[in-house]
Design goal:
Blueprint lengths: L20 H13 L2 H8 L3 H15 L4 E4 L2 E4 L1 H32 L1 E7 H6 L1 H11 L4 E7 L1 H9 L5 E6 L6 E15 L12 E2 H6 L3 E2 L5 H10 L10 E2 L3 H9 L5 E4 L4 H5 L4 E3 L1 E2 L4 E9 L7 H13 L1
Parallel strand pairs: 3-4, 3-5, 7-12, 8-9
Antiparallel strand pairs: 1-2, 5-13, 6-10, 6-11, 6-13
Helix pairs in contact: 1-2, 1-4, 2-3, 6-12
Length: 313
């Protein structure tokens, strides 16, 4: 009968065969101080816990490491050899820790933010002031654009955190809803809609040429989705990429405009613009923080995300 072929058993994972870093640090302290009790005090653990850790390490390695006596603790020959190895492991761990701290420091020294125009103009300044108080040494750069451009920057890892408006998170990004906004229809005081007693309906809004943000903006996405059941938006009267330009066009009487409620507070209060009631269409939208899918914001990005949630709550 032929011998069965030899099959090597896979070795247990290294973590199950090598003492943990805490045990190695304890052994080095015993070697340096000559006392298990003094080593325990230096590391902030009890002597029974230190004794238990040494015994567990001896069982794992299969050799005695420390001779204990009333006069103190002395390393065995095997213990001296293991201590030499332990010193190299601990030194490597210290180098690893120093490198990790340097990486965190480099990460925490800057924050690249991308935000949609509305959020960049009306919400981010306050958030960034609060972040500067918490992290005065972090340099922040801000890129403003429409929601599609913001998503592209975050997907390309050109921004650490993005803020967009719209009905859902862009593909490839994880998100958190940080607040809500509402779109409003505004006109100059001389426009016929400013004198209407009742609201306009969604069908009339859809059929009217409007002053609008460009495709890809969060404002346009919400309006397109809301008016889709009524044939979608009519051919725009004007398409502008700037909130300031949109408001100026509306104030001039060029036509009705759809903008964020956040952007027109001063103009409505001063009666330079008039808000027109609309029925039959949902113009509420989510404000979202976004970041690459499968990751989590860390360092300054995490802190800014926390600040945004607190501010809008």
């Amino acid at each position: 009968m032929a011998d069965a072929p030899f099959v090597a058993r896979p070795a247990a994972p290294l973590a199950h065969r090598v003492p943990d870093l805490g045990a190695l640090e304890l052994l080095l302290a015993v070697a340096r101080l000559g006392s298990l009790g003094r080593a325990a005090r230096e590391l902030g653990i009890t002597q029974p816990a230190a004794s238990s850790r040494i015994r567990a390490m001896e069982r794992l390695l299969g050799v005695a490491l420390v001779d204990r006596s009333p006069r103190g603790s002395r390393l065995t020959d095997a213990g001296s050899l293991v201590t030499d190895w332990a010193r190299r492991v601990v030194e490597a761990a210290e180098a690893f820790d120093a490198g990790a701290r340097a990486l965190r420091g480099r990460r925490d020294s800057r924050l690249r933010v991308a935000a949609s125009m509305t959020i960049a103009e009306y919400l981010l300044p306050g958030w960034l002031i609060a972040l500067h108080r918490a992290r005065p040494d972090t340099a922040v750069s801000l890129q403003a654009g429409n929601s599609a451009a913001v998503a592209a920057r975050v997907l390309a890892h050109e921004s650490d955190l993005g803020f967009v408006e719209g009905p859902e998170a862009p593909e490839g990004l994880d998100s958190a809803v940080i607040g809500h906004d509402r779109l409003v229809v505004i006109v100059a005081p001389g426009h016929p809609w400013a004198r209407r007693r009742g609201p306009i309906d969604a069908r009339e809004l859809a059929a009217t040429p409007l002053i609008l943000r460009e495709p890809g903006s969060g404002t346009r996405q919400v309006l397109d989705a809301g008016l889709a059941p009524y044939g979608g938006v009519a051919e725009p009267l004007l398409e502008l990429a700037s909130t300031t330009a949109l408001k100026a066009a509306a104030v001039s009487g060029a036509g009705p405009c759809v903008l964020s409620e956040l952007a027109v507070g001063e103009e409505l209060a001063a009666r330079r613009l008039v808000r027109v009631a609309v029925e039959g269409v949902r113009l509420r939208r989510d404000l979202r923080a976004v970041w690459p899918a499968g990751t989590r914001p860390a360092g300054p990005a995490r802190d800014l995300l926390t600040l945004t949630r607190g501010a809008l709550d």
